[in-house]
Amino acid sequence: MHPPHKRAFVLAALAALLWSPHPYLLESLRQENVPLLVAQFHFVFWPAVAFAIALFLSGRGPALLAFRGQETHVMALAAAGGYGFWVLRAVASEAVAGAPTRALLCAAPLLMAVLSILTSERPDRRVTLVLLAGLAGSVLLVVGQSRGTGVATHVVRGSLSAFGAAACWAAFSLLVRPLMREEDQALPVAALVTGIGAVCLFVSCLSTGENVLRISMPQLWGLIFAGLFTVGLVMLLWLKSIGSAPVTLAAPFWYLAPVLGVAWALVSGWRVSLWWTLSGVALVLLSLRTVLSGRQQTPLTLADVIRSSSG
Question: Average pLDDT of each block of 10 consecutive residues along the chain (311 residues)?
């Protein structure tokens, strides 16, 4: 295992664990005729409230002033991770496009590697192969699950929205990495991203005529609980993870979410194919084992050359 990255890997794995029930919660809400745009608003709004309270109680409110002069960067983060990702996930889920949509939503880790080519932390061939194997395993897991609620519709719209959502999360992760490397800014960044995102989602609800309060009290409490744990805590864990390790090294751990999601699929009454599931789990675990067993590469310096030649 990469010794300095052990903490990052644990945090990323915990984020995946908490995220795993989210797709099934969305499908359950859709079955209850809850507008998914409204659901996404609550998923983002309540973590934003919790982050704001945490900043106030911890006396870290002035930390927000550290982003003065970086308004463009912050708005880009909010557009990708606080708004675009959630809106496109809602569109993809409402399209009822079946397995293709859910499979494309798993592409975010691989897209992180693709987009990281534009940064100073380019992935090597081994990491890219690991991400491809993990994606293949995730696709097998998703294809092996079905709810049996009818034929898929709006496949193209759902697939494009799912791919766009994955791209938004990948872009958010890479854009936020420089801020996380400098110091522990996870809480202020999460507060800004979710706060701006919640405002934008609320405006979107108003523009489409959706009433964010037109839900029952049990549904509201469920959205608050799910928002705090499957969104808020997940975002904090992920931000802290990529503050300790390059995004492409932490990204494969997102593939644990479909693995852990098998249990949620069974609880939710989905049909699960044994052979597809076993094959998918094997590929995901193999990719993670490769990451955990990889040796940390350190650059060769002139001093190393002199010592080796003198020895």
Answer: 76 96 90 93 97 92 83 94 95 74 89 92 87 94 76 75 95 93 83 96 96 93 96 96 92 95 92 93 93 56 38 45
Q: What is the 3-state secondary structure (H, E, C) of 275-289?
A: HHHHHHHHHHHHHHH
| Structure tokens that stand for 77 in this block | 């983060």
SS3 209: coil
Six-digit token string for 5: 């990255």
Q: Are 91 and 150 in contact (CB under 8 A)?
A: no
Could you tell me the end-to-end alpha-carbon distance of the chain, in angstroms, rounded to an integer?
29
Q: What is the pLDDT of residue 148?
A: 57
Q: What gap in Å lies between CA 34 and CA 223, rounded to an integer? A: 11
Instruction: Give the C-alpha separation, 198 to 98, whole Å.
Output: 27
Query: What DSSP element (H or E) covers 42?
Result: helix 36-57
Q: Cα dist. 221→193, 217, 227, 253 in Å?
A: 23, 6, 10, 29
CA–CA separation, 64 and 51 (whole Å): 12
Q: On the CB side of 127, how many CA atoms lie within 13 Å of its CA?
A: 23
Q: What local confidence, expressed as pLDDT, does residue 94 receive?
A: 83
Show contacts of 56-65: CB within 8 Å, 24+ apart.
58/187, 60/187, 60/188, 63/185, 63/187, 63/188, 64/188, 64/191, 64/192
